[in-house]
Hints:
Layout: E1 7-16, E2 25-31, E3 38-39, E4 42-44, H1 51-63, E5 68-73, E6 78-81, H2 84-89, E7 95-105, E8 120-127, H3 131-134, H4 140-152
Amino acid sequence: MNKKDLYRPNVAMILVSSSYPLKKEIFIAQRTDLHNVWQFPQGGIDEGEEVQEALFRELEEEIGTRDATIIAEYPEWISYDFPPKIAAKMTPFVGQTQRYFLLKLGNDAKINIQTAHPEFDDFKFVKVDEVLELSASFKQDVYEKVINYFKKEDYL
């Protein structure tokens, strides 16, 4: 297995409310398996699956809707390592390599985190600057880099 294969291909999404661009509020959700850890929806890309297919599949699996529109895409893959406790559950992967998208929820989008396999037990919309305060420490560098990119491009 080469180094690239040690990172699980993943898609991640920064969701803004249907009030965007008037309000720049970002959706974050609290994980069911990690106490007080908030994150963006994300998930693995299945073998043979296109990135955008995975994006909308994961959106529906994690928050119960596909009613969203892509606003922008982070221009490259970005990776992070799992902390030891999570790495033990994710063998053979040592981390994830992710493709990030900025999406706007549709006006009629209905968020439902009580999906077939719930990963979240709560969610909220927060100001852009609050995201890093609430997110897991091992994801903060990635979140900061992606958020700063979307800010620089005048999306956030």
